[in-house]
Amino acid sequence: VIKEKHRNNYKMFETSISENFKSMLTMESDLRKALQKEQFELHYQPQKNLITGEIVGMEALLRWNHPEKGYIPPLDFISLAERTGLIIDIGDWVMYEACRQNKLWQGGGYDPVIVSVNLSAKQFHQKDLVSKIQHILNETGLEPKYLELEITESMAMTNEKYILNTLQQLRELGVLVSIDDFGTGYSSLRYLSVFPVTKLKIDKTFMDDNQIQNKAIVKSIIHMSHSLNMKVIAEGVETEEQIAFLKEENCDEMQGYFLSKPLPPGKLVHLLSTG
Ligand code: C2E
Ligand code: MG
Ligand code: MG
Ligand code: MG
Questions:
Q1: Where are the bilayer-spanning segments (predicted)?
Q2: How many CB atoms lie within 10 A of CB 10?
Q3: Please, what is the average pLDDT of the chain?
Q4: Among 72, 83, 143, 263, which is disulfide-ready with 64 (CB 3.0 to 4.6 Å)?
Q5: CA of 123 to the centre of ligand 2 (A)
Q6: What does the pLDDT read at residue 6?
């Protein structure tokens, strides 16, 4: 009986592996076609200056509108896109689209904002990254100071010389660079002071008020950013209390559901300031 049971379990295990594998392959072939079928969309989440109250930035967040499965969140396909190399073409599309959209907002007579674009490791390590971005800025007519690239700690902290060089070229071009999800990865404080990064984004896990140490961590990140001449933004801000605390601690900006969920560009214009 026991043997029989094991055999059945094993069979179930086997089927579920092959089913997972099949669905992964389907997903991969769907992902390959998604770009040409125009199934990607960018939603944007506003970023607010805590002193002036103005919207100063919009983070572009990728959405895959799958014909059968509906909206697929980025965390469900970005790593597949990385593994297959598809992230390069997808990332190019994201960059172009975000710059184009930002230029469109500017043409609508709103005060200019900075659009920020998430970069994956593979994208960041492209040899022609800087010239590609230069080309996209030329094509869309967006001034470099209105584009920010978000990288992660782990991307910034490996192969220092190469990274430093790329970051310097990007800064020379005039685009901004932020470190996303700051505090969740490894980062060396020495590199942080050497790398020409313009902003730290405090990871949303530190907004959890139930963790008593979080306030101390947030305070320290804010003070450190300012000491290193960087701006600092809190991610994942959901409550009035969190905003009061961030203001008290002189955090520059905030982003989170309290202000708005990520939305299609047309649904955000009412938040943009004029004059
Ligand atoms: P991220 O760059 O850290 O983006 C912030 C994520 O937190 C977004 O999830 C956003 O919807 C979510 N969020 C914003 N405010 C709140 C809040 O108040 N509370 C909570 N609980 N969550 C909040 P999303 O859109 O699912 O994106 C997840 C991640 O996928 C992003 O994290 C980013 O790492 C990656 N990603 C998104 N778009 C792209 C892209 O175009 N390229 C690359 N390489 N990665 C992307
Ligand atoms: Mg981000
Ligand atoms: Mg983040
Ligand atoms: Mg992230």
A1: none
A2: 10
A3: 92
A4: 72
A5: 14
A6: 59
